[in-house]
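Reading group handout, session on sequence-to-structure problems. Before we discuss, look at one worked example. The prompt was deliberately terse, the way you'd type it at a terminal:

> structure Sigma-54-dependent Fis family transcriptional regulator

The input record follows.
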Amino acid sequence: MEKILIVDDNPSILEALSLLLEIHGYAVVTAQNAFEAQQVVQYQNIALVLQDMNFSSDTTSGEEGKTLFYRLRELNPYLPIILITAWTELETAIELVKAGAADYIGKPWDDQKLLTSIANLVELGKAQASNAHYKRQQAEREAPKAGANLVGLVYSSTAMERIVDMALQLAKSDVSVLITGPNGSGKERIAEIIQANSGLKDKPFIKVNAGALPQDLIEAELFGAEAGAYTGANKQRIGRFEAADGGTLFLDEIGNLPLSGQMKLLRVLQSGEFERLGSVQTRKVNVRVISATNANLLKDIKNGQFREDLYYRLNVIELQLPPLCERADDIVPLISHFLPNRELSHAAQRALKAYSWPGNVRELENACKRAGVLKPEGELDEHDFILKTDVMASATTITSTKQEPTKQQLEEAMHAHQGVIAKVARHFGMTRQALYRRLQKFEIEY
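And the output record:
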């Protein structure tokens, strides 16, 4: 239950507002002067403040309210404050709104408008506090990583925390690393972290996306080619392995490498030796290889599409990145990174966390770019992101063959899975959005 502080020296106003808010499910704390108000905010968890502009019977300037406003902001800069004003104090109230006050209401007030404003501001306050908590978490997280270069990676989830910690450990060694995960999940960024914190950070870091190259050019791209080695090869070409000599080569979409290229890659990893296409001269390099794929290489091995010996040569250590839908704690921080200084409605946060993000971080970035262009100012709502699948408007429900979970079953599952929405949703065979609707229906905290 959210706790609201009402500050007014008039007992009748305190009583009227307290009754209105308590009827609508809020807990109420009252204060009749600035000192009491500051004590409450300092020692209690207050979600919103309703404060008068004067606390002395012979004062109408609003200066007392102005002083209290700034003191409360010092105590909690994210605390929403609504000012209760008379016409004589309106100019001061507008000044304070410009300084960060959430809203102001005149006397007498409209009950419904006040309740709507309070509900919206309480949710906004939660979002701002959550963002501040994230920033504190980031500072605490990066403290033990003093000196580490995270190449701008934005994350808040425990899953990504483990991945980053492992990447920093692997950076100290020279073993081959295989990074797996769906497209757009951040595999290249993890490779960059390994490189940036390794002993090779000042050496060449060469990237090649095997999935973006025609099959007949992949070998030439990796190992180079002599003039005339293939149609269109009018001059000698240096391959990526030669360019990366002494440093690191990042091979993205390694599963797309043809079998002939896999054999040559295996040889380079074993001996450091290779020949350019069209050449018999053996060349030798010293290159650390980090590879990545979104494919199931073990399945490809069974199907004869990928060499087992190469797989184990590449996969000394595997870092498996989960899809964005399994690390929902990263979504709001990423949006704050892609859309700095923009505010999200609470409904938007919940909807974006519930969306499946099949394109992962890349899709999220594109959605943020669209929202920023189409709505350059103001609070962003879920519909501003124009997602491919309108899961925010309609969620898949449990089919009629499955029994609808009771409130007790939902609470037990939330407890058993420690509140992890994705796991609870899988437990009941429903989408996360469908689960959110049921949690709201039964007023279950999540």
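Points for discussion. First: The domain at 327-441 is CATH 1.10.8.60 (Helicase, Ruva Protein; domain 3). Second: Confidence is low (pLDDT under 50) at residues 390-402.
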